[in-house]
Design goal:
The protein has about 140 residues and is α+β, with helices and mostly antiparallel strands. The protein has three helices and five strands, in the order E-H-H-E-E-E-E-H. It has one domain: Hotdog Thioesterase (Thiol Ester Dehydrase, Chain A, Roll).
């Protein structure tokens, strides 16, 4: 999804010097960090306490899939808007769709997909998504 209007949440970040390569373009390893930061900010926006979930329910998320599609360069000191939306909500899995846009622009520079599986800490066995999280998430929008 590269349509900016499809994302209910954006996290604005500035590309730091340490995040670019010799060409002045964002180094590929930093995209997952940006996605992770945006996902955490989205959960905070939803008032969902992920840390309480881990501490009190002994449930955490395992990253089982990450996809990054580079569509255009992201440069040093650029402001970027990282869009987040739930794309698919399963029994124990949650697929996130992310898009990185130039500040205030409809130009999508990067698309991403992150798949989490909820699991019991220690056993690493899948577990149904917590009801509080399901209640906080908007329903995925069909493409």
């Amino acid at each position: 999804m590269t349509d900016r209007v499809r994302y209910p949440f954006f996290d604005r970040q500035r590309v730091r010097y340490a995040e670019v390569d010799m060409q002045g373009i964002a180094f590929n390893a930093h995209y997952l960090t940006w996605f992770d930061c945006a996902l955490n900010e989205y959960l905070r926006e939803l008032k969902y306490d992920y840390h309480a979930q881990v501490r009190e329910q002994q449930l955490d998320f395992h990253l089982v899939k990450s996809v990054i599609e580079y569509l255009g360069p992201i440069r040093f000191d650029q402001l970027i808007d990282i869009g987040v939306r739930p794309a698919r909500i399963g029994n124990s899995s949650l697929t996130w769709e992310l898009g990185i846009f130039a500040e205030g622009s409809d130009q999508c520079l990067t698309r991403g997909e992150i798949v989490w599986v909820c699991a019991r800490i220690g056993s690493h066995q899948s577990h149904p998504l917590p009801p509080a999280l399901l209640a906080a998430l908007p329903a995925p929008v069909a493409d």
